[in-house]
Structures are given as structure tokens and as C-alpha cells.
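EI: anyone free to look at a 357-residue chain?
SC: sure, send it
EI:
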Amino acid sequence: MKVRSAVTRLDPYIPGELKAGAVKLASNENPFGPSPLAIDAIVRDAATVNLYPDQHANRLRQKLSAVHNIPADQLIIGDGSDEIMAMITGTYLEPGDNVITAANTFSTYTYATLLFGGQMRTVPLAEGRFDLPAIAAAIDSRTRATFICNPNNPTGTYVTDAELRSFLEKVPKSVVVVLDEAYVEFATASDFPDSLSLLAEYPNLIVLRTFSKIYGLAGLRVGYGIASTSMIADLNRVKQPFNVGLLSQIAAAAALDDSAFVERSLANNRAGKETLYKALDDLGLSYYRTQSNFVCIETNTDAKALFRRVAELGVTIRPLASFGLPTAIRVTIGTPEQLTLFLQCFEQALSESRLPG
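SC: here you go
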């Protein structure tokens, strides 16, 4: 059988690794597990899984509509926000069209582009941040979309409200601006964009969010997109029916009410950042101050080898060679106990890597 040429260009996704018995700080998961209200809802409604889910996830969309003060017909629910990325490229790309993003960011943007015969163009980060003026300058007549990760994975850096507004003014209305805000709930910067306020003014903007991070539902795969009604109507043409499972929809809707769990997670994240910053300053290592639930660290050594040794000692982290950063690692901000263990393992592995010979 002959595979499509576009498929031969796809590289498999490289996930954060598991190791039996090790603490996992590799995939930016919530260290407290899932929202307790979500678990209660799953247990309560587990006996209904003989039924097909609502293909438009109307209950969840109505709750999100109320939370964000956005009409429900401006929302689409996906099997993780990754699926919505593929919906976007599947809707708007013809073979030979191009998409633009940063050189060091989430790989699914490239996957979604290549899957439908598009060409991915990348622009270097500027001091670890998306260079929006350079991305705007790279747009040509065949550009159909740009992917902006804010905060950026893996650096945790962000573009400001003023920078995003300036960028949107420069982007032709025929180009979809995909703003991936998977980590938005963790952002604390006063000038972080209020992206939803921009939707009415920029109908080519779509904002993506997820239940995987702050709500601890990564294993249930629920994400959502917020955009103009016309863009959502376009995406619904390519959306698979019943794409999000019944219990996933139920759990996500319940999690939206779990303000206590969200606040506990955010408080832990704020404290954990400061713990890591102090330890890294003491070690004399460079890192990016983060607006997310992870920290990107420059190790000045082979990050893959460092990762393997840290895993042997009891913690899995993420080496960033697959992101184009071969000497950097990314570590999830875990509980205080998890971070203490990580720092012990990391310092030992780092000292061993610096030994002569």
C-alpha cells in the first residue's frame, strides 16, 4: 500500500517518559491528581457509558459559556486541544500552504500542519520568547495560520497583551491566529493578554485551552476552542462525531466548579516556582522565569544523559532535545516533597556530569 507523501514526513510524538517507581515531573501534569469533583462525577455516572456521548458536548459548552461569558456557539470541544489543532489545519490548509510558529515550541503544531500537506515555517525565539514581529514579517500569500503558544512550552515565557494586539493588527484576516493557552491559568503577569476580549475584534483568532493541566484531567483528553461563530461552524464540518467521551465531558463540567482544587494547585505552583528559583540560583544555572507549571533550565551539559541519571535516582524530567534545546531540561512544579527529591537527584546527577573524565 502507498502512503500519502505527507504521512512520510511525520515524526512520532515524543512523550515524557515513565519509569517504574520514579516520581514523574516530565509532562506538566497536576501533582495533586485530578479534581475531586471530577472523580465524584465519574463515579456517579459511570453506569451510563452504554450511551453515546452528546456529540457537541452541549452541557460542557453551556458551563464554559457561563464561566467565560462567551456564547456557546463560539465554543468547540476537542479530544484534547491537540485534536482542535488538527481540525484547524484540516479545515483551512491546502497542500503547499504554510503555517508559521516558533522554532522551539510544542511539536503538535508541526504534526497538524504536515498531516494535511502543509509546510511548517519556524522563526527563532528571542531570548526564549515568541518573536511576534518576526512571525508577522514571515507571512506570505500561502500562509494560512500561525501557532502562538502563550505561555510557551517548553520555556514558560509569554508575550504581553500589547505585543499580541500589535501582532493581530499586522496579520491578514485570511490567516488564522491560533493562540494556545494550555497553561493560562498559571499565568500571574499583570500584562498577560486578556485573549477572550480580543475575539470580537479579530474574527481570525482562535483561543485553545485544556482541562489537562490545572484540572488534572490529562488522561481524559478534553480541550476546547473559543472563536468567532463562523470559525466554529467551519471546524464543526471536520469534527468527528462523538469525539469526546461521555465521562470526559461529565468530569470536565464538574471540574469547572472545583475552585478549591484550582486554588490549591495555584498556591502550590506559586510556592514551587520560588523554591526552584532559589535552588537554581544557588547552583548558578540559567533558567526562564515561568508563567506556567514548569521551569526550563539550561544545564550546560548533555540533557539526555542528565535525564537518564536523574531517572535512575528516582525522578523523571523532560530533556528538551526534541524541542531543539539539547542542553536544556524542563521540570514540572510538583509538590514540596517531589521538588525536594528532584533537587537532590538533580544536584547529584549534575555534579557527576561535571567530574573529569
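EI: The radius of gyration is 20 Å.
SC: 👍
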